[in-house]
Structure formats: structure tokens, C-alpha cells
């Protein structure tokens, strides 16, 4: 046995040394990381982009103090460049006024800030098309609603829907129907029972929205559902990012709606 | 002169060949009190080189040349029994050997592992007596898996779960067999204990890697449990009450047969009802074995296990799961050299989780047929083992939960295996196992060739080295990666063409020294996980792959020392290991990985009815993913106005470790008579605060440590009639 003592000792030392290495944590400290929330939309007066820096675990819970101002934010499309300007009233909120995104178009975003690495990201705006709404009430008063599936450029297909119903007078008193007010679904129809269409036993007007989103925002929404650390999860931890050198998303959405008037 | 020398040598050799007698002895070794066959009994001659061990039914076959005398002695040695010397004369002998167990008092303190005879290839192999498990400190009931975690090379995740991780392999890579049928999720609530009552088991065999070719289907090791066949002479009754459950064990003769039945149930739900309270959880399990001997050459064993768990959080939320496995074994010995073993079994795990509106149903069943042939050749003392196996797996998972419905499946897939193995003695010192399995899983076009080579060289009667290589394949896996989750959600899934089979290559080398009161061994291993399948942790939409084929490797060193002293047996185990998996091309430590693990096991001998055991473990902390902070994102829930959410910001996966883990457990037994025993278990004697995990606080931005088990004493009692 002793003859092999040196070999055993050597093997032990080699193993011992090789086992000491730990995988390197290459993720920057939270304070050094920019997070971006930006969504290009078809029916808004101004496009908005929010910049935050990350916070350490012991930091305060007030999100406003993590807003990052003083960034240079540029959107480029088809050789043209547009500059976002920081809102005077909301620090860390950058706006681009009077800008309407076009279907099947690639938009590139560059964010420069002296304290953070440069961020580059892009979104492919969904193909805009008619949702081809149709609906009817059956004899039981149940609503049957259908629409055409929305196909995206780049071959990516996803459908995302929302509906609301409200009173007829200008929609100021909108009331969300059900506990969920949006759905991701591959379905192209919806059947709502009559009793669910009543508010205080009165028939009310209905307004339904259907969305077409790009892959970035769709993935972010799924991530938000899947990665809640307090919930049961199949998956391990991950930081969400569709952008280089930072966290968050730069996504886009096309929204359409239909109003069904049926006020008593 | 040379011609004379050569002539003399030829004459001497001829004399040896002509006059040396070929001796064959065979038979069965049993317990003298119960007639229970004894597994792994050392059977050897006084030369120290010739020997064998008894098989799973206590049978053995030994052939050798004898030119020295007409009579010779054969020794039968087994831990917990008096060594028997039997005088043999003649060339072929059938031996029906009864070994006498040591006294009941001593039986309280048996701790020595039943190590195989030094002439057997014991590479990466250990055998344990259930009595050792029963007399080790335990949380509630004695548990096989928790006991195995006190051995080297076997890691654990935390105090609550009894999942074990052998040589860097996930828990689903361990083939768990009970009487040759596979068990899938044999765990009770939160994996707190196994569904197999240790007192129903007569032998525990563990292959950490390079397990024999007549079993297939896992890329890691194999755990074989044998149920008791029952006392063929007398009726016996045991009754055991622990903190967790009560267990009743019955055994006795049944005409020409014997039976063993155990029933175990938790009782807290009954007790709490007495004070008008509700305890939401209960389990029941049982083991049955009926053994017939229709003739001297036949043996039929019907055995099974059933376990039922129920968790009723309230009327709207309840969960149930069960293991049921039944086997039919026919063993036929037409001649001393030939042995057939045919097995038909059905194993089923089923679970359901229901709320008032949602459901999740999870099930796997395995219908198997296997036949084995063993033949002993005199040439090179070779034992041939050949056979075929068929498995039909039915897997079903149906969930209405949004997070789980992507895993819905309902499939059946078949697997065919052919195997052959030669166990041969190439010289007096060199033994070899050469085996091959041809395994065909019908979802893949190409069958897998799975070779096995094991070599052992005996330097002396006390020192040997061994090495082995094996390639293993696995076609079913659980999707929960390293995460220990509740058994109902431990989802087995059949692999398909997208990922291919899981494949591992295993290599190990061992050196062992055995002295009368001292065993030392050292083993070095390397497991290359050529393909290991993971749930895609970044799965977000249907265009993403649900499962990914990744790689990994694990290597390390295990050193064991066992010292058998008059008053106590002492075991020291040290394991150094490194396990790295890759995910998305980046390496990481799996969450069960412990760089160092050191175990001390001490079992005292009985003195005036007192006995005890102690286990101390010190191990590196587990890797975990650090919450480095948090970041804010806007989420357009209604797609109109954004809401700000904080999300945790993590480090690279498992790039940090919890503080080192250490804990001392103690067990004290006091036997008052042959019929009654009291025992005290103390878990975490010095109340070490080992970190279980960091729990996110409600703000989702900070985390606080949650500790594992505190100082926890429990009392139990055992009755025997």
C-alpha cells in the first residue's frame, strides 16, 4: 500500500487544486446595470422609454430614485435618426413625440450614458393588418366574438388579446371584466356568458382590444409570468434582457379595438 | 541436463493435471432461525484466494483444483453471524448452510458493512445491512436514502429532502430496484422519507457507478433492495412507534411457503382529531413478500410495495400520490451450474394535485419482463450471465395550470435490452468482468451499445486494486433539474429524437486494504456526462426548445477507513469532488454539489442493553445563485398604462456557496428485554444553524436566511414477539 502512497498523495493534490475553482460571476453589480423599458405603440401621442439603474438588496424601495437621467437616446430607422428627449416633469422618462411606427419595420435603439455601457437593441414592428372583427349574440344572450389571427413579419406568430367593457358615456368609467384583463392565446374567438356581460344587472357597452406584439415584448410578458420568485417555478433564476449590455426590453405593439354598444 | 529438467517439469505438471481434483461446491446459505436466505456471504478456502459470495437468494457456486488432501474446510462468513467452518470431502457437494446469528443484544449494535469477499470485484460497490440503517440516528423513521448520504461520494441537498446525489449525478440517474422492479418516486411528503420501510428489507446493495450490464436505464448508479422473505420456521411480529409513524411487521411459515408483510402509517392525523384539530397530511405504505418453493429446483417469489400519500390543505386544495409496484420472480436451478431467473413486474407512480378550479395529474408506469441465465464454466472459472429485458413505459401528465400545461403529454414507449457478461478468473490474482448491453429504445432508430469492463488484481490477501469502465444510457428523466420539489410534481418524461438519449461514460479506480480490524479503501472516479437533458430554463414561447441536451462531468476521490474495535466500530469517510454541468454553453456547479464532505460514523457495541450510534458530517456549503440586487421594469398589464415592477437581479447561476454545513446526530438504544426497546434520536445535537436557502421577502427585493433543522430530540419504541 505504501508503494502507492506517493501516487495517491499526488492524485489527491491534483484533484484538490482542480476542485477549488468556482465559476466566475461575470454579472456586474446591480448599480452598474441599466434597465430599459420601451414600447413602440401605434396609437399614442408620444413614444416613451424609461431608464433605471439597478439597486442593491438593501436599497430603498422607492423606484423613482433609481431613474437615470442625462442619457442620449436615439432611434434609427431606414437611415433616419430620431432623438428622444428627457421629460421635464418625469426624470428618467424619455419621450419621442409625433412618431408613428410602421408595420414590418426594424427599429434600432442606441442609449449612451457616461456611467453605463452603451446599449444597443432593436425591435421588429408587427405587421399591421385588419383584425377582421365579427361578433354576434346567441339566443341565450352569450357573446361570440372572433377575429383574424395576426401574423408577424420575420415569421414570428403570436397573439395577445385584451378586453374591457364600460359604460357608454365616453368610457370614462371603464370597468374591467373578470380578474384578468388580458390574455395570451392562440385562439381567435371568445365566448362570454351573458351573466358575465352584466354590470349591476344592466347590460353594458363593451370594448375589446386585440394586440399584436413583437417577440421581445411577448417574451418579457411570459418571463413576467414564469419567473416570479415567490411562485412555484420549474425554472431557475434568470435576469431578463433582450438588449445588449443591460436589462429589460425594447418592444413594440400594434393595438386595435372594437366597441359593442348594447346599453339598456 | 536440460532434458532431464524439462522431463521432470513435464512429469510434475502432468501429475498435477492428472491427479489434481476438480472440486465443485454449491448450495444455499440461510439464517438458522428464520431460514431467510443470506445475500453476500463470504465463502472461501483457507488459502485466502479462492472464494465467492452468495447471490440474491443465498445461492453460491465455487469450483477449484485440489491436489493436496481429500478433505478441506470451507468458511462461511457474514456480518452479524457466527463464522461457520464446514469440512468437505468428495468432488461435488451440495451444501445447505445455516448460519447462526449473534445474540439479540449484539444485534442492536451491528454496524459493519457486509463487504464482499476480496476475490470479488467490489469496485464502486457497497452492501449494507438494514439493521445498521435501523440503528442510525434518524429524523422520525429510519430511512435508506438518508443513511446512504452518510457514506462517501453521496451528496445531499438539505435536511428536509432525502434525495441523494451520487458522484455528481442527479437523483433521477439512480436506478432504484426493489426485488428487481424499478421504483420511480418512492418518497413521502417533501421527500422527508422513503416509501420503503427499512425493516422490510433484508439487504441493501449500492453501485455508485459501473453497475452490471443485466440492468440498464440509468446513467448513474444502482440501488438494489431485497425484501424479506419471512421466517419459514416461526411466526414473528414487530411493532415500532416513531415520531412519524407506526409500523407493524408480520412474518411466518405458510405451508411450504413463507410470508412477510409490513404496514406503516402516520398517526398525527388521528391524534389531532382527538383534540378537534386537523393535521393535513398522512401516508400509508406496505410491503409484502410470499415465497414458494414448489420443488428443490424452483423458487417463486411474489412481492410488492404500495404507498399512498394524501395532503389535504383544505377542501379546495388537495394532493394525493401513490407508488405501487408488484413483481413475480421465478428462479429455476436445473443443475448446480445453471440458473434461470425470470421476472415480470409492474411499477406505477401516480399523483394528482387539485384545487377548486385547476388540476394536475402526473403518472408513470413501467411494465417489464426480464429473463436471466447464469452458467458456471470450469474454464477460467467463468460465470456467464446472459438475458433479455423488455420495458413498456406509459407516461402521462395533464395540467390545467398555466405554468405547467406546456408539459402535458400522454405517451407510451418501449425498450428492448439484450445483455451478456463474462465474469472470469484470468489468473489466481486477476479477475475480470466483461459485459455488453444492446439497448434499443423505440423512439431512436439506433440501438445503444453499452459495454462494461471491470478488472481486479489481488496483490496480496489483504491488498487489491480494481478498475472499471462503463457506458450507460438513460431514456427517461425528471424535468426538475436539480430542484427538489414535491413528489407529485416530480415529472418523469420520455426522451425523444430532439434531444437523444442521455449518455454517460464512467471510469473508476480503487485500491483497498483489508486487515482483521481495519478496512481502508480509496477510489478515484470520472463520470463524463456526454449528454444530459435539461428543461430549458429560458423557455418562453413555443418557438423555444422545451428541452436541451447539455453536457457535464464529475470527478473526485473517496477515501474510507473503517476500524472495528472491541467496544465500537468507527467509520471515517472523506470525499473530494468536482461536478460541472453546462447550460447554454456556460459551466456551472449543480445545486447539490459539495466540494468536500467528511463523515464520521460511530456505532457502539451493546453493554447491559445500552447501545448507540453517532454521525457527524461536515461538508462544503451548496452552491446557490446570489440575489445581487433588483431592477425596475415597466409592465403594460392592460397594454395602456405601465406599472413599475421590481425584479430580483441575480448573479451567474450557482456562483456562490452557502457557509459550510455541519451537524451531529445521535441515537441511544436501551433494550429492556428481548421484546422491548426504547430509543432516543437527537438531530442536530449542538443546534447548528445551517442555511437552507434565502427566502425572498414580500418586497421581492431582499432575502432572509431560512435555517434547516434545529436541535430535535424524538423518542421511539420497538416491540418484538
UniProtKB/TrEMBL annotation, chain A:
Pfam families: DUF4249 (PF14054). This is DUF4249 family protein. It comes from the Bacteria. PROSITE patterns: PROKAR_LIPOPROTEIN. InterPro entries: DUF4249. The lineage of its organism: Bacteria, Pseudomonadati, Calditrichota, Calditrichia, Calditrichales.
From TrEMBL, chain B:
This is TonB-dependent receptor. It holds the Pfam family Plug. It is a multi-pass membrane protein. Its main location: membrane. InterPro entries: Beta-barrel_TonB, Beta-barrel_TonB_sf, CarboxyPept-like_regulatory, Plug_dom, TonB-dep_rcpt-like. Coiled coil: none annotated. Residues 311-685 form the TonB-dependent receptor-like beta-barrel domain. The keyword S-adenosyl-L-methionine does not apply. Gene3D superfamilies: Carboxypeptidase-like, regulatory domain, TonB-dependent receptor, beta-barrel domain. GO terms for cellular component: cell outer membrane. The keyword Nucleotide-binding does not apply.
Amino acid at each position: 500500500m505504501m508503494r502507492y502512497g506517493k501516487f495517491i498523495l499526488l492524485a489527491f493534490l491534483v484533484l484538490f487544486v482542480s476542485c477549488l475553482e468556482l465559476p466566475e460571476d461575470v454579472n456586474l453589480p446591480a448599480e452598474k446595470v441599466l434597465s430599459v423599458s420601451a414600447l413602440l405603440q401605434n396609437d399614442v401621442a408620444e413614444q416613451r422609454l424609461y431608464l433605471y439603474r439597478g439597486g442593491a438588496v438593501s436599497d430603498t424601495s422607492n423606484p423613482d430614485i433609481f431613474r437615470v437621467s442625462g442619457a442620449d437616446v436615439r432611434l434609427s430607422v431606414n437611415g433616419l435618426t430620431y432623438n428622444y428627449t428627457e421629460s421635464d416633469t418625469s426624470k428618467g422618462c424619455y419621450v419621442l413625440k409625433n412618431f408613428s411606427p410602421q408595420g414590418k419595420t426594424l427599429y434600432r435603439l442606441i442609449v449612451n450614458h457616461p456611467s453605463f455601457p452603451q446599449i444597443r437593441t432593436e425591435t421588429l414592428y408587427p405587421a399591421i393588418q385588419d383584425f377582421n372583427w365579427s361578433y354576434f349574440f346567441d339566443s341565450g344572450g352569450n357573446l361570440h366574438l372572433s377575429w383574424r389571427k395576426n401574423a408577424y413579419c420575420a415569421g414570428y406568430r403570436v397573439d395577445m388579446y385584451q378586453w374591457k367593457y364600460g359604460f357608454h358615456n365616453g368610457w370614462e368609467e371603464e370597468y374591467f371584466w373578470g380578474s384578468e384583463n388580458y390574455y395570451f392565446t392562440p385562439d381567435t374567438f371568445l365566448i362570454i356568458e351573458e351573466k358575465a356581460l352584466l354590470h349591476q344587472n344592466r347590460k353594458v357597452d363593451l370594448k375589446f382590444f386585440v394586440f399584436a406584439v413583437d417577440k421581445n415584448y411577448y417574451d418579457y410578458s411570459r418571463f413576467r409570468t414564469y419567473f416570479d420568485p415567490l411562485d412555484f417555478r420549474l425554472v431557475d433564476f434568470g435576469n431578463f434582457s433582450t438588449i445588449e449590455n443591460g436589462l429589460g426590453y425594447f418592444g413594440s405593439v400594434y393595438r386595435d379595438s372594437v366597441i359593442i354598444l348594447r346599453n339598456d | 541436463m536440460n532434458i532431464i529438467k524439462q522431463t521432470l517439469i513435464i512429469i510434475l505438471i502432468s501429475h498435477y493435471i492428472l491427479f489434481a481434483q476438480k472440486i465443485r461446491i454449491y448450495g444455499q446459505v440461510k439464517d438458522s432461525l428464520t431460514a431467510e436466505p443470506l445475500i453476500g456471504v463470504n465463502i472461501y478456502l483457507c488459502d485466502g484466494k479462492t472464494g465467492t459470495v452468495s447471490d440474491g437468494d443465498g445461492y453460491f457456486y465455487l469450483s477449484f483444483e485440489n491436489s493436496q488432501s481429500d478433505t478441506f474446510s470451507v468458511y462461511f462468513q457474514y456480518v452479524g453471524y457466527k463464522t461457520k467452518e464446514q469440512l468437505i470431502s468428495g468432488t461435488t457437494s451440495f451444501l445447505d448452510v445455516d448460519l447462526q446469528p449473534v445474540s439479540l443484544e449484539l444485534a442492536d449494535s451491528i454496524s459493519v458493512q457486509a463487504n464482499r469477499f476480496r476475490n470479488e470485484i467490489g469496485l464502486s460497490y457497497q452492501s449494507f445491512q438494514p439493521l445498521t440503517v435501523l440503528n442510525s440516528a434518524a429524523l422520525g423513521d429510519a430511512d435508506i436514502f438518508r443513511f446512504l448520504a452518510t457514506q462517501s461520494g453521496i451528496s445531499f441537498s438539505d435536511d428536509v429532502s432525502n434525495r441523494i446525489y451520487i458522484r455528481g449525478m442527479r437523483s433521477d440517474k439512480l436506478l432504484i430496484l426493489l426485488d428487481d422492479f424499478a421504483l420511480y418516486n418512492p418518497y413521502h411528503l417533501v421527500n422527508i422519507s422513503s416509501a420503503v420501510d427499512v425493516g422490510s428489507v433484508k439487504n441493501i446493495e449500492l453501485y455508485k457507478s459501473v453497475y452490471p450490464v443485466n440492468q440498464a436505464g440509468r446513467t448513474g448508479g444502482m440501488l438494489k433492495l431485497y425484501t424479506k422473505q419471512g421466517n419459514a420456521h416461526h411466526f414473528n411480529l414487530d411493532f415500532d412507534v416513531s415520531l412519524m409513524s407506526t409500523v407493524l411487521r408480520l412474518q411466518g411459515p405458510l405451508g411450504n411457503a413463507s410470508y412477510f408483510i409490513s404496514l406503516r402509517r402516520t398517526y398525527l392525523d388521528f391524534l389531532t382529531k382527538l383534540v378537534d384539530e386537523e393535521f393535513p397530511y398522512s401516508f400509508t405504505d406496505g410491503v409484502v413478500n410470499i415465497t414458494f418453493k414448489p420443488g428443490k429446483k424452483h423458487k417463486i417469489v411474489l412481492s410488492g410495495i404500495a404507498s399512498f400519500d394524501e395532503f389535504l390543505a383544505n377542501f379546495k386544495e388537495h394532493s394525493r400520490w401513490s407508488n405501487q409496484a408488484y413483481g413475480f420472480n421465478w428462479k429455476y436451478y436445473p443443475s448446480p451450474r445453471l440458473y434461470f431467473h425470470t421476472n415480470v413486474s409492474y411499477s406505477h407512480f401516480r399523483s394528482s394535485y387539485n384545487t377548486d378550479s385547476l388540476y394536475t395529474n402526473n403518472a408513470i408506469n413501467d411494465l417489464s419482463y426480464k429473463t436471466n441465465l447464469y452458467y458456471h464454466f470450469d474454464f477460467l472459472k467463468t460465470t456467464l450471465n446472459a438475458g433479455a429485458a423488455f420495458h413498456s413505459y406509459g407516461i402521462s401528465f395533464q395540467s390545467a395550470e398555466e405554468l405547467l400545461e406546456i408539459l402535458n403529454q400522454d405517451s407510451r414507449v418501449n425498450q428492448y435490452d439484450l445483455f451478456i457478461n463474462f465474469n472470469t478468473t484470468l489468473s489466481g490474482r486477476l479477475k475480470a468482468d466483461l459485459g455488453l448491453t444492446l439497448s434499443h429504445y423505440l423512439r431512436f432508430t439506433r440501438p445503444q451499445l453499452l459495454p462494461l469492463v471491470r478488472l481486479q488484481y489481488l496483490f496480496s490477501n489483504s491488498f487489491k486494486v480494481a478498475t472499471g469502465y462503463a457506458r450507460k444510457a438513460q431514456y427517461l428523466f425528471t424535468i426538475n433539474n436539480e430542484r427538489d420539489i414535491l413528489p407529485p410534481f416530480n415529472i418523469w418524461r420520455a426522451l425523444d429524437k430532439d434531444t437523444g438519449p442521455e449518455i454517460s461514460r464512467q471510469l473508476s479506480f480503487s485500491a483497498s486494504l483489508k486487515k482483521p480490524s481495519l478496512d481502508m479503501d480509496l477510489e478515484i472516479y470520472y463520470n463524463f456526462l456526454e449528454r444530459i437533458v435539461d428543461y430549458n430554463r429560458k423557455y418562453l414561447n413555443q418557438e423555444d426548445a422545451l428541452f436541451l441536451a447539455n453536457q457535464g462531468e464529475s470527478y473526485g476521490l473517496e477515501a474510507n477507513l473503517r476500524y472495528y474495535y472491541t467496544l465500537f466500530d468507527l467509520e471515517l469517510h472523506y470525499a473530494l469532488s468536482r461536478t460541472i454541468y453546462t447550460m447554454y454553453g456556460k459551466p456551472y456547479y449543480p445545486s447539490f454539489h459539495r466540494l468536500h464532505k467528511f463523515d464520521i460514523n460511530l456505532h457502539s457495541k451493546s453493554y447491559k442493553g445500552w447501545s448507540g450510534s453517532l454521525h457527524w458530517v461536515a461538508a462544503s456549503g451548496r452552491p446557490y445563485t446570489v440575489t445581487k440586487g433588483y431592477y425596475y421594469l415597466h409592465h403594460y398589464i392592460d397594454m395602456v398604462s405601465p406599472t413599475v415592477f421590481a425584479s430580483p437581479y441575480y448573479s451567474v447561476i450557482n456562483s456562490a456557496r452557502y457557509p459550510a454545513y455541519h451537524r451531529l446526530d445521535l441515537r441511544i438504544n436501551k433494550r429492556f428485554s428481548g421484546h422491548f426497546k426504547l430509543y432516543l434520536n437527537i438531530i442536530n445535537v449542538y443546534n447548528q444553524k445551517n442555511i437552507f436557502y434565502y427566502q425572498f421577502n414580500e418586497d421581492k427585493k431582499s432575502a432572509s436566511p431560512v435555517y434547516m433543522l434545529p436541535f430535535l430530540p424524538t423518542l421511539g419504541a420497538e416491540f418484538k414477539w
